[in-house]
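Researcher: Please predict.
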Amino acid sequence: MEEVSADGTVEVDVLDEHGPGGAHHVYRITLRDLDSALPILTQSIIFQRGGILEAGVNGVSCEALLAIVSHRLQHFQAGVFPCPENQVAFDAVNEALQAL
């Protein structure tokens, strides 16, 4: 298991080996309590493995996750948390969506 990111409260781990195209397909996000460091939520993200025509739909796409992040940032900007940093992130996420 490879740890992708950890900041004390959020951990992201890779749970599988490289697959088609050279990418990993299964990740686990663990959220930990600030005081006790005990896990309070664990969620897996399973990405599409192989082409849809060959393997069928079997996971989420990068585009789907980027669309979620774009939507959240758009609403932060329209709500009580607008800031230049959110706008930069929103623009970058949408540029990534267009590239994909």
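Model: The beta strands are 2-6, 10-14, 26-32, 39-46.
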